[in-house]
Amino acid sequence: MGSAPTTGADHRKAHIEEMRRAERSRQRRNRILAVVASAVVVAGLAVGGVALVHAQSGGTKDTASDGKGSAHSGGSAAPGNSGDSGHFVTGKDGVRTWQGTLARTHVTTPVTYPMQPPVGGNHNPVWLNCNGDVYTQPVKNENAVHALEHGAVWVTYTGKAATSDVAALAAKVRKTPYTLMSPFPGQAAPLMLSAWGHQLTVRSAADPAVDRFFATYVQGAQTPEPGASCTGGMMR
């Protein structure tokens, strides 16, 4: 007795069953892929979290709101200790360059610097705003030095400076980011410009050396922390 002939209904049934098997197989593959992908994501998050914790614990940042643990060492120093050693050497252009060590430790105590105005050394954790800021009263050296570390040029003057020169330099500072200006009664000359490790006495606001100093030292190569903020610090 022979087998029953295959009908069209049987073909359809077989085809449907084959499609179901294929669908079940596809779903299994998708589940496997989803599990693998999830494992990869979880592993990535775990690695990223470890890296972030490491960066936050081992690295530092320099902001006005968090105590300023910048790339240089933080901590304390004895009152009056700038951590500086060395002396100025005057170049042919009249710029005095500090030859020696300029410390960069954050301190909260007053600091006595070996040069006036100071051009570097231990300084307050909070920088003085230096985004073209003009101060009409003397500022704290410890905050101004931090601004120099960020690449600012500091214009200072005494009561012997001509009123017209003070006004002209103030106008220049106001339109120049990474600069600041303040009176400095104790300095040796009526008009002086300072940057990290560099200082210049100028005759007047019209002295061509003013523009040269700005062009060279505003965010210049001497800057220990190029690109660091000149806002968000102290106003005075």
SSE map:
Layout: H1 8-58, E1 85-90, E2 96-101, E3 131-134, H2 141-149, E4 153-157, H3 163-174, E5 179-183, E6 191-195, E7 198-201, H4 208-217
Describe the fold and architecture.
The chain is α/β, with parallel strands linked by helices and 236 residues long. It folds into two domains: 1-59; 85-217, 3-Layer(aba) Sandwich (Glutaredoxin). The chain has helices at 8-58, 141-149, 163-174, 208-217; strands at residues 85-90, 96-101, 131-134, 153-157, 179-183, 191-195, 198-201. The chain has a seven-stranded mixed sheet with strand order 1-2-7-6-4-5-3. A hairpin with a 2-residue loop joins strand 6 and strand 7 (198-201).
| Helix coverage percent | 25-40%
**Average of per-residue pLDDT values:** 81
> Biggest sheet, strands in spatial order?
1-2-7-6-4-5-3
The succession of helices and strands, N to C, reads HEEEHEHEEEH
**For the CA atoms, what is the radius of gyration?**
33 Å
Largest beta-sheet characterization: 7 strands, mixed
Silhouette: globular
CATH architecture of the largest domain: 3-Layer(aba) Sandwich
* Poorly predicted spans: 45-71
Derived from helix and strand composition plus strand pairing, the structural class reads alpha/beta
Distinctive features:
236 residues, seven-stranded mixed sheet, 4 helices
Task: Give a quick precis of the structure.
With 236 residues, the protein is α/β, with parallel strands linked by helices. It has helices spanning 8-58, 141-149, 163-174, 208-217, and strands at 85-90, 96-101, 131-134, 153-157, 179-183, 191-195, 198-201.
